[in-house]
Amino acid sequence: KAGVTQTPRYLIKTRGQQVTLSCSPISGHRSVSWYQQTPGQGLQFLFEYFSETQRNKGNFPGRFSGRQFSNSRSEMNVSTLELGDSALYLCASSGLAGNNEQFFGPGTRLTVL
Amino acid sequence: GENVEQHPSTLSVQEGDSAVIKCTYSDSASNYFPWYKQELGKGPQLIIDIRSNVGEKKDQRIAVTLNKTAKHFSLHITETQPEDSAVYFCAASKVNNDMRFGAGTRLTVKP
Questions:
Q1: What is the pLDDT of residue B99?
Q2: Cα–Cα–Cα angle for B61, B92, B36, rounded to 5 degrees
Q3: From A42-46, A96-100, A103-107, A108-112, the region with the lowest mean pLDDT
Q4: Minimum CA–CA partner of A102 in chain B
Q5: Are B32 and A90 a contacting pair at CB < 8 A?
Q6: pLDDT tens for residues B75-96?
Q7: CB pairs below 8 Å between A and B: how many?
Q8: Are A112 and A81 in contact (CB under 8 A)?
Q9: Which end of chain A is more exposed for a tag (fewer CB within 10 A), N or C?
């Protein structure tokens, strides 16, 4: 069974731009969660989607948004990028709504210049 | 909300020794406690998890213990090997809620 895939793996943007990251969950999984990982703040929960609906949301500004498609693939978007948005963005898939047994992808490394 | 504290932040052991990493959580409603291993350039990998109705779980050289009363849980790695070197994260979550992670422990196993 293929694991969680994320594209692109690396991205360089400048302040003020917007970015879209993509995540394909494990086949059959319907829940996708997004996390931001930075050296200073660690792993922080962004949001979770299940069956195209946002089920949970972390404490991030509205510039961070996401969506999920009918095939469970998910995208997250960050608008008006700031230097502090530089991070590793991880998505995790789960077979159940909620956060049991989450399996992570390799992440997208975003650098904002 | 949930707060997860993890200790130590770094741990260095000799190959063959045991390693123990400890976490505490604040929300007594949390009922799922996974441990992840993250190697350089990779996403976190689930290595073992425990639910609140179980006190201990073991998988070969890895074990996790949970003390619900004290709200802490620990990861035990026996007979450590150099390939165990990585950053380990604990986490806690409630059903249908976001997962809160500890700050991580960098484990180094010296050959």
A1: 85
A2: 40
A3: A96-100
A4: B46
A5: no
A6: 999 999 999 999 999 999 886 6
A7: 58
A8: yes
A9: N
Residue ranges in chain B whose pLDDT is less than 50: none
Distance from CA of B17 to the nearest CA of A (A): 28
Q: Does B35 touch chain A (CB under 8 A)?
A: no
- Structure tokens given for A105: 């992808």
Q: Are A23 and A90 in contact (CB under 8 A)?
A: no
Token pair for B79:
């007979």
pLDDT at position B94 is 82
* CA A68 – CA A73 distance, rounded (Å): 6
Confidence of residue A41 (pLDDT cuts 50, 70, 90): confident
The answer to whether residue A96 scores a pLDDT higher than 80 is: no
State the amino acid at position A19 in one-letter form. V
Separation of alpha carbons A57 and B11, rounded Å:
33
Q: Could you check whether the bond before residue B8 is cis, i.e. omega within 30 degrees of 0?
A: yes
Confirm if A18 and A79 have CB atoms less than 8 A apart: yes
- DSSP state, residue A86: -
Burial class (CB in 10 A: 0-12, 13-18, 19+), B16: exposed
